[in-house]
Amino acid sequence: AILLDMGGGTTDVAIFRNYALLDTFCLPVGGNHITNDISIGLRIPLEEAERVKIEHGRVDKEDIDPADFFEIKDNWGESKAVLTSFLAGIIEIRVREILNLIKREIEREGPLDFLPRVVVTGGSSLLRGVVELSGEVFDMPSRIGVPLRVSGLVDRVTQPIYATGVGLLTYGRNHQLEVESRRREEPLLSFLVNRVRNWFSGLRMSSERGGPNW
């Protein structure tokens, strides 16, 4: 599987096969670049562009009502209407570019035939239509990746934007449990090793004295 973590400043990529990590790389482009594109394309401040991206961002132009629009505040503080399809066009260009860059980087190492699916996570994966666009670019099934087997604030942390953080915490916890388990086993293991070592030492000393009298 191809795992895409579409963050703010970067897009991190990991390639797995049979649950084994084959390769990783990072592209220095992500959600912040989408925000910047919106800011330039609509001539609005970055803060307003980020709000627009979160509230109205999508890439599925074909599914948008041509008359659908929303209000923004431009660089001069004046309100104006923007067609949702126009915004989607701006975002799609950047997202498609990111996906194609990833695809070309992976294909440098070999064909994609052995990879069964794309899993998209990170904040930018919340843009409507990103999963479908990923499937189109890579020509394989695609889905959103969210943290699993978590407890506590489940409704808040089981979101793509928290996938990396929750994953690191889960890995750290599992590693700590493994270390603690090994520490509990070490005294018994050391005892057995010492017994075997003493036994061999006894045999060697007996042999040096001429062996036991049977």
Automatic annotation (TrEMBL):
Pfam families assigned to the protein according to its UniProt record, in alphabetical order: FtsA
GO aspect biological process, one term: cell division
Keywords: Cell cycle, Cell division
The keyword Cell membrane is annotated on this UniProt entry: no
Record GO cellular component, one term: cell division site
Origin superkingdom: Bacteria
SUPFAM superfamilies, sorted: Actin-like ATPase domain
Designated name of the protein: Cell division protein FtsA
